[in-house]
Amino acid sequence: MHRLHPFDPDLHLKVCLAKHLEQSHHMECNICFESFKDTKYAFGIQENCNHCFCIQCLRLWRQKDEMVNYRSCPVCRTPSGDILKFPLWFTCSLSKKLMFACKKRTLALEKYYRYVAY
């Protein structure tokens, strides 16, 4: 059951989305320092780190061949295997863990069904 509007799930979703968008607009990329007020930017969310980056900057960072720690956070160097492109910033670590679990599950299913005979 939805806590904000227990009898109206659409209104609950609308209020929660507006709250998350407002929180996301105050964030800025730690590489290019662009604000996320502009909707053309998506967050590059790392699995093991909470530093904020736009997906373009994080992908460029990871593509550099000379970087020894290219799969780590550009700020704190925490190893982080996966990144997730998402339009909102996660303030809750549980939500972040759930999104990465869903991504891994989806990739595993795609890999499995690629080899299943129909």
TrEMBL record:
What keywords tag this UniProt record?
Metal-binding, Transferase, Zinc, Zinc-finger
Q: Which GO terms describe its molecular function?
A: ubiquitin protein ligase activity; zinc ion binding
- Domain spans labelled RING-type: 29-77
Q: Which InterPro entries match?
A: MKRN-like (IPR045072), Znf_RING (IPR001841), Znf_RING/FYVE/PHD (IPR013083), Znf_RING_CS (IPR017907)
Q: Does the keyword Magnesium apply?
A: no
Q: Which Pfam families match?
A: zf-RING_2
| Gene3D superfamilies, alphabetized | Zinc/RING finger domain, C3HC4 (zinc finger)
Task: Please name the GO terms of the biological process aspect recorded for this protein, alphabetically.
Answer: protein polyubiquitination
Positions in coiled-coil regions = none
Q: What is this protein called?
A: RING-type domain-containing protein
Organism from which the protein derives: Biomphalaria glabrata
